[in-house]
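dumping this here before i forget
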Amino acid sequence: MNIYYVAAIWLGMALLASVISIRIAIPAALVEIVIGALAGNIPGIREHVTSTDLITFLASVGSLILTFLAGAEIDPVSLRGHWKASVSIGLVSFALPFLAAFGFCKLALGWDLHAAEIGGIALSTTSVAVVYAVMVETGLNRQELGKLILAACFITDLGTVLALGGLFASYGWLLLVFLAVSVVTILALPRLLRLAIKHFGHRVSEPEIKLLLVVLFGLGGLATQAGSEAVLPAYVAGLVVAGVFLHDRVLMDRLRSIAFALLTPFFFLRAGTLISAPALITGAGAPPAPAHPATERPPRGGAPTARRRRPAGPGPRPGACPSRGIWRSRPRPRTRAVPAC
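structure:
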């Protein structure tokens, strides 16, 4: 399929979401998810909403940069003053939903252990990218409450990553290399960014933005290769350069414009297209009871009933219609004809 045609469809959906969000005063990220879900499930439209490798890559980059910007919005001074509250909220917001979802999947639905663990982790995580996008449009990212919530979201996501790693990941030398490279790079990033802004900053070619993208892509690729999440080093990198962005809001605004205009619509729209309406309808009902050979198919809305056996006899009585399976308890008079089958 023509890649320009595919891009025009996706950006058209993003434009529609922007207009609707402005009209109804709802953050564009939420509208984009809804439009993506509708486009991915309506016959006649979903055939044209193609998720190519390019769309997947742009969505991943959008998630990566949004997570970095969410970390960069947090004032280091404010974080040091509210770190206890952030850690407490993050831990509770991860642990309670995980335990509740895990217990329900295991005990109520009867899932096996690994399936229940995955269900608990999936339903206990949060999305820093979605939270940040909503806060930017509502203005909460500039308030202390918004910064506290963003920091707590990071703790929640960190719990998800650690839970996935502890339950399912395989540890190896590549994970150690990733951790060592991430620590060295992230510690040196603020100094490198200040040097780039001092000597090459605010040029048309934007070398400081390219420096950030190189670091984010490099750490993200190494994290993926090691079996971790690319957004984890991106958020930490945003935290360590937040002090630089406090004194250079121009760089922050330019990077945010690139993300919200081109990259994040692909992320939210693709997240919506991954929602399957048939799976939601099927999952809304209770799991079916296992069929038993001594039961017949139950009527709609009823429980299975035992099969009624016909007593052995010489055969059909007079007046019976074998093809319809109707057996009369009393034979008809001989003067009447047998009804047609």
